[in-house]
Amino acid sequence: MSTLLDFSAGVATGAGGNTLSGGQIVDAVTNGTPMLTKTNPGAACALPFANRGNIGYRVLLNQNCSLSFTGGNRGELQTMRVILQQPQGGNCEIAWPDNVIWADSAPFVDSRNGTVCCVEIMWDGLSRYYGSLIFG
Q1: Closest CA to 89 of 63, 65, 109, 67
Q2: What is the pLDDT of residue 80?
Q3: CA angle in degrees (0–180, nearest 5) for 81-83-86
Q4: Helix or strand run (H / E) with residue 26
Q5: Separation in Å, CA 30 to CA 21, 24, 26, 55
């Protein structure tokens, strides 16, 4: 029988070998999905999946932008939520990567001033990314 958590050293070591203190465990259990902001990402914006669990990004556009998604832990179903926001002047177009399989088709991103588009990207734990439009 394998041990899932070992608290003998005052920290928890999970089956994957990751170690967390008691405070980190409480934070991990009680917090929501981490959200990172990418301000003015330029012409290309790489959005990596989290080392563990899910992640969110707010991308504040400043020009046309080609997005890419990377990472994802083998054997772990992970999701990434991406909020794209047009600048005051709008007119920023998004190029979606070819390695995402979309539920219908790659979403249209409205380029009017201040509009928001939200998508979810899922890593299947093996080798593929799947995407769907949430809002926009």
Answers
A1: 63
A2: 98
A3: 165
A4: helix 22-30
A5: 14, 10, 6, 15
